[in-house]
Amino acid sequence: MIEPVIGNTAASPAASANAGNKTLGKDDFLKLLITQLRNQDPLNPLDQNQFLAQTAQFTSLENLQNISTQLTEMKQLSSASSFAQNASLLGKTARFTGRDFTLGSAGAVLPFSLDREAAVDVDIIDAKGSVVRKLSSQKLDAGSQAVSWNGRDGAGDALPPGLYHYRVTAYGGAQAVAAEGALTGLSPEGAGVVYRIGDTVVRPQDLIDIN
User: Fold this and answer.
1) Are 34 and 46 in contact (CB under 8 A)?
2) What is the mean pLDDT of residues 30-46?
């Protein structure tokens, strides 16, 4: 038997739900719908079309939440699969044009090697992925080389000590290598991964080749 509405009883559940949760989920929507049916006026019951429309809204809300859950699960599975594929490269020897380094108060020395005489550019990249300084060099001999950086940006302002990344670009058909060796580890970072060659952190975007 449906009880008649007394005072503003029907408004209380909705007000309470809104006060406790700004975003209504399917459970909240269902509770409101049941409360509305329980407290409707028997002399003026809920219109059948309105009831069907609210039921359809509830069904749509539930479907949308289920889709969101499925997409999240698919993303997690994809990330796990990608990580497993990257892990298969561990133990292989690879070469990279860049590597991470720590900037101290005295600046930093950035080593690399050239397979032939060439001019090079060295991009210094901060933790946000922005190039904060570009160092250019005239032709350097083949073999082991290094560029010194005083820790200042292009405007001459001192940058804070911490983790940075550098990438070497060689010209005239030469190849610059900033890190080379067996991949000994990897770890997730953002949407991708970073590798390790011993204590050196290298990144997939700098990969030259894998043997």
Assistant:
1) no
2) 68
